[in-house]
Specification:
Elements lengths: L5 H15 L4 H25 L2 H6 L4 H23 L8 H12 L5 H9 L4 H29 L7 H32 L1 H26 L7 H28 L4 H11 L4 H11 L6 H28 L5 H5 L2
Length: 328
């Protein structure tokens, strides 16, 4: 497992490109429309690719799944609320909004399952839990975020407009994808690698558009190097708390080592793939979008690096028979 994969390098290059050559005028408008269509296509593809059987298969382990959902949509939102109190004295309001949004996001799918497998954990449960988190997250994330925003400063989001946009751009394409799965599901399964490239392309487009808007607006002047360093430290702190609480809860509930790893990696992660498209909808047109998505990007790369190390440690302590027992 590489600590820094090629996509991370490309992502950083896109940010640098946006800082040097930001999209403006008609180009920015065109990229905005392309991003909207790309996000719709992304959630259509996710709906068509998601097997209903993969969700049903792991539902019997209800305690594990409930804990993962509780960590994702309950504990993490509570952890990030105090961060919003740092604005505007310590961090810009848009960055505080970004942390609230980070707390409301669903778990990452691919990396959660991958690191559970590397750690020789309960892969089948991880597949089910990560999928359920993302399906539930389509509905839960906007509501959890709005609840957090309402409890602080409102987050600058028009609730009614956001719900309409989420329904039209995310939920409807996802539902259409599910309905079309019997027709195109096999095709998507055969071309899963190409679908993965499409996901990454949409993310890169959103990142470039968001940071171009961020740079062109001049909003970046509100963020000092010290502020960026604070954002990094806050993300590391949130991740450490989430991982520590996940392990503690697993042991308190008497889970075995394999289930503990599933809770650790599924319960502490946040999805960049889901987070950026939804941010593009929820915060459309906001000059501070670059700052809002900054915590997601920092947290995502931090969780990959830390999880790679921890997964190897778990793998080194795993009984030899675990691999055969826990294979999906």
């Amino acid at each position: 497992m590489k600590l820094i994969d090629p996509f991370t390098v490309v992502l950083l290059a896109i940010i640098v490109l946006a800082a040097i050559v930001p999209a403006e005028g008609q180009v920015a408008t065109g990229l905005g429309w392309a991003g909207t269509l790309g996000v719709g296509g992304l959630f259509f593809a996710h709906g068509a690719a998601l097997s209903r059987e993969s969700i049903v298969a792991g539902i019997t382990h209800w305690r594990l799944h409930l804990l993962i959902l509780a960590m994702t949509f309950g504990v993490c939102p509570l952890i990030v609320v105090p961060i919003s109190w740092l604005a505007p004295a310590v961090i810009p309001p848009a960055l505080a909004t970004g942390f609230l949004y980070l707390g409301a996001l669903p778990s990452a799918v691919t990396s959660s399952i991958a690191f559970t497998a590397v750690a020789r954990g309960n892969v089948a449960a991880a597949v089910c839990a990560a999928a359920a988190s993302n399906v539930f997250g389509l509905m839960a994330t906007p509501f959890v975020f709005m609840l957090l925003a309402h409890s602080t400063d409102g987050g600058g989001v028009d609730v009614g407009h956001a719900l309409i946009q989420i329904s039209v751009q995310l939920l409807m394409p996802f539902a259409a994808g599910q309905l079309s799965r019997p027709v195109i599901g096999a095709f998507l399964d055969r071309h899963a690698r190409a679908a993965g490239h499409y996901d990454k392309a949409v993310i890169l487009l959103i990142v470039y558009t968001a940071f171009s808007q961020f740079v062109a607006s001049g909003y970046w002047r509100q963020m000092s190097p010290a502020g960026i360093a604070i954002a990094f430290m806050l993300c590391i702190g949130v991740l450490a708390l989430m991982m520590g609480l996940s392990v503690g809860l697993a042991r308190l509930c008497g889970f075995d080592r394999a289930d503990e790893t599933a809770l650790l990696f599924c319960g502490s992660k946040k999805s960049l793939a889901s987070g950026l498209p939804m941010a593009n909808v929820l915060f459309a047109g906001q000059a501070g979008l670059g700052l809002i998505i900054l915590p997601i990007m920092i947290y995502n790369q931090t969780q990959i690096i830390v999880s790679a190390v921890i997964a190897r440690l778990y793998a080194g302590s795993a009984p030899a028979e675990t691999v055969a027992e826990r294979a999906p």
